[in-house]
Amino acid sequence: MKPAAIPRPSGGISSAHAPDLDIPARFMALAMFGLLVTGIIGVVAYPLLLESFYAPKLLAFVHLHTLGIVAPLVVGASYQLVPVVLQEPLAAPRVARFSFWVYLVGVLLFLPSLVATWQIGLGIGGTLLFAALLLYAAIVWMTLASAPERGVIRWHIAAAVVGLPLGVAAGLLLALNKTTGFLEGRTLSLLAAHATLMILCWITPLLFGVAYRLVGMFTLSEDRLWHRVAWAELGFTLVGGWTLATSFLLFHSRPVFIMASALVLIGQALFFVQLAHMYHARRRRQIDVHIPFAMTAASCGVLAGLALFIGFIRGDGPAGELWVVAVWLGIAGMMISAIQGFFYKIATFLVWLNRYAPVAGRQKVPRLEELYKLRVARIGWICWLAALITSASGILLGVDLLVTAGGLLAAGGIGCFLSNVVRIASHWQSGPLDRVIGRMRRSRRAAGGERVGHVIASE
Amino acid sequence: MRLISRKKESDLEVGQPVTGQWRISDVLKIYPDLLDTLVETTPAFEKLRNPALRKVQSRLITVEQAAGIAGIEPRALISRLNAAAGLDVATDDDPDSEDDTPVASDQPTWLDDVTVAQELDARPFQERGEEPFSAIMEVSRQIPEGQAFLLLNSFEPVPLYDVLGMRGFEHWTEFNAPDEWRIWFFHSGKKLAPKTAGERKQPAPPVSESDWGSADASVTIDVSELVPPEPLIKIMEALESLPDGSSLLVHHVRRPMHLYPQLDTMGYRHDTRELAPDQIEVLIQKPPFAEAAP
Q1: Which residues contact A358 (CB under 8 A, 6 or more apart)?
Q2: How would residue B161 be classed by pLDDT, with cut points 50, 70 and 90?
Q3: Phi first, then psi: what are they for B258, rounded to 5°?
Q4: Which class for A403: exposed (0-12), middle (13-18), buried (19 or more C-beta within 10 A)?
Q5: Max Cα separation, chain A?
Q6: Which of B6, B7, B258 is the mutation pick for testing A, counting most A CBs within 10 A?
Q7: What is the nearest CA distance from A268 to chain B, expressed in angstroms?
């Protein structure tokens, strides 16, 4: 029987319903700046990973990754992707723009204050970050509430929106504790709960849910998604994550820790299997640049889960090297790798949309792959992967030289990535940078070099 | 601007007789066994046994157009399909008395000495499960008046005749083999008038409602096997190729959120309907005159 048309709200979709490109772009620009800073200070900062959890500089370095790169990129990408994934216009785009400025002031105040242990800056910066992320959660929740999508991807996003405010609240309490010390002996427990909530109850479900849709879209494997496996992954990840966070705060029961970390590990393994299956079954056989990054991210997720599980089995304390490896692989390995991979799809598409969509069909327009250097992207991935391996090994073995080498390699990987970011950004609109690159390409082409990706003459 | 869509009087279901306006994809969805009947009718339909080709091609042609491809009267094909489906449908035609041979027509005079500027083989596109429409329109744009291009296709591309006719192309078709049709498109400059509602064989729909039937769309394309931003490019290319006043029906797996602003900017009316998860149709209508935004 022919399926009936599903009734939709009247009013239709017009320009007003499309995601505004400037909203994700500003967050992504901030994330790229954060990435640039980590690349520059990498060699000096990576050895901090061998220090104590309480070291202010290590806290600042970790938060440079989380608040300077991961959070702004995830927030920006969410503002762009959630409407697309859920096929529902973004609620309150003006508030989304406002949230950027709140976030920017907050992060610029918070991170230096963390290094300098400036109490007032930590309090104000933390409060502003808390407010900005709450606004973000509210916008996504409102978008979610009216979306027709009711599947597993929607629930991943919903779970992430629930996890975020609690994780940020825990972080704010930790920031305020720097001033008052009211947490006393519970500081480390709350810190562990904060990290768990942010990594496992916000970023992980959001990243996994969006990945299911994006990977399907960009490799023609949407219909290959194992929905039951996705549901199972979500269940294991959430139950494991929330149990861990609760146990950190309340029980401190070793069997509960072991059980919860086992659930987290199973969730990560299911995501890895799902991703591998989708890539294996993809109808677009070309190996896209995001694939190695995404598989690296999924592998790091499994290894982080494994480190956590082994750490609890061994009875290591929160300051143990397995914990540090688990957190590091979760943040740098899973999040930053996935961000780099999906950036090549999301940001490139946004730039393409802004510059070339208006002339598509009337002029020849470049393909997404022509907006950056594929070889540079691959070299960047190799450097980044090597950085992860050496830095994680260095943490586990306590070898300063290995961790420093990891910092060097990370700088190389980030350098490659950012050079492509600049190249992609040069397409945003015809400007001075665009003209310079255009001239360089034309002169190279005249000498028998590469194809020119730019189509619209800038002169 | 939007088209206000009219719901079909009833959804297609088993027991309903096949009509000339049904798409082949509808026929095969409701009566899967009719695939054998179609293949028996003409070897040109043998390719429908390939799932990938079936997905792309069966959506693009109606039963009426399929009859043209097979070289038989539409009513004869309709009768044959309904009979094979076990439906007792009253018809003026006797299926047994139909003449299945294509009607020969006089070769046009321009064919003798026309310069064939370009040749395009659409069959590799079809084998890859891709739509050759954009490539065909791209070639047609490069043909100067007084010259022609030769299209090689695995079936007779009946819907193309009107589309290219409205762009000033006459055609001549030769059947060489079941998977080789040769069609010469001569750029004479004599443009066919766009079809209007009054010229349709079906009753015109009420004013302010768009007919979601395939007959309403000048061209149908399927972009469900493309990754972003290729669907947007294909759709915009197809729209650019279409004459003013014609419409485009797009098959997609998701709502093309980023396409809508482009259509609104260009002044194209559009409407989207969701048939099922991962099954979206977008009907886009070009303004009858050049009223689109620059």
Answers
A1: B262, B265
A2: confident
A3: -85, -10
A4: buried
A5: 70
A6: B258
A7: 27
Give the DSSP letter of residue B191. P
CA A42 to chain centre: 19
> Can you tell me which residue has the tokens 């409602």?
B209
Strands, E, within chain B: which ranges? 115-121, 147-153, 169-177, 180-187, 219-222, 247-252, 269-276, 279-285
Nearest chain A Cα to B141, which residue? Answer: A362
**Is any Cβ of chain B less than 8 angstroms from the Cβ of A368?**
yes
Token code pair at residue A387: 């950085």
How open is the CA angle A38-A377-B128, to the nearest 5 degrees?
145
% of chain A exceeding 90 in pLDDT: 48
B276–A361 CB contact, under 8 Å: no
The tens digit of pLDDT for each residue in B74-86 reads: 787 888 888 888 8
Greater pLDDT, A313 or A148: A313
Give how far Cα B261 sits from Cα of A353, B2, B269, B270, Å: 11, 12, 11, 11
Q: What is the pLDDT of residue A435?
A: 55
Which pLDDT tens digit goes with each residue over A318-345? 667 888 899 899 999 999 999 999 989 8
Burial of A51 (0-12, 13-18, 19+ CB in 10 A): middle
At residue A140, does pLDDT exceed 70? yes
**pLDDT tens profile A401-419:** 999 999 999 999 999 999 9
Give the best-scoring range by mean pLDDT among A188-202, A437-451, B108-122, B252-266: A188-202
pLDDT of residue A17: 47
Q: Which of A410, A419, A450, A361 is nearest to A42 (CA)?
A: A410
- Distances from the Cα of B255 to the Cα of A322, B7, B266, B283, angstroms: 45, 19, 18, 12
Chain B residue whose CA is closest to A21:
B258
Question: Does any CB of chain B come closer than 8 Å to the CB of residue A432?
Answer: no
Please name the residue of chain A whose CA is at the shortest distance from the CA of residue B272.
A12
At A290, give phi and psi (nearest 5°): -75, -20
Q: What angle do CA A321, A322, A326 make, to 5 degrees?
A: 120
Alpha-carbon Rg of chain A, whole angstroms? 22
pLDDT at position B89, please? 65
* A336 C-beta neighbours (distance < 10 Å), count: 28
